[in-house]
Amino acid sequence: NAGVTQTPKFRVLKTGQSMTLLCAQDMNHEYMYWYRQDPGMGLRLIHYSVGEGTTAKGEVPDGYNVSRLKKQNFLLGLESAAPSQTSVYFCASSFYSWTGNDEQYFGPGTRLTVT
Amino acid sequence: DQQVKQNSPSLSVQEGRISILNCDYTNSMFDYFLWYKKYPAEGPTFLISISSIKDKNEDGRFTVFLNKSAKHLSLHIVPSQPGDSAVYFCAAPQGGSEKLVFGKGTKLTVNP
To answer: Do the chains contact at A99 and B32, CB–CB below 8 Å?
Structure first.
């Protein structure tokens, strides 16, 4: 049981380049999330998904797109990277809970630098 | 507007003593709170939670206290150990939904 895995662990992009971050979970969780963590800013929600084929915007969605074609995978895309997107990106997943009180399980993070 | 606030960016304590990490919130609709712990180069991991129907929840060395009238919660670690050195995040589900709102975190350093 690997939990939540993220690919790649590190990446350096030039401004304007595109890339996709992959998140995979093997816990059969319905909900998946993408966060970014910046110094002094805590964790901010980018996009999330409440099930296969669904996505929704979080707090800071601009410049990112996501897809959830399979239940176990959640992809985060940057179409045209900007230096402001330099950050550490975390994926997380959780069981469905109507109360919203299930803990989220996080991946190890992807450190992205945009020059 | 920040709904979950951790006003102390850092805290340093001696091994064996008590660590107290504080969290304030502005949204009176929050009814559940979670604490996450994060080591460098790793993802956050769930530590302990509390429902608004309680004012205290214990798990081993970790206790979370909730003061609803003050919109304040605190995490107590007793006794503190060097392995507790990490960043601690307070979080709450927004509007009873699946979205968590996080504080900015407090970096705890436990000195041997």
So the answer is: yes
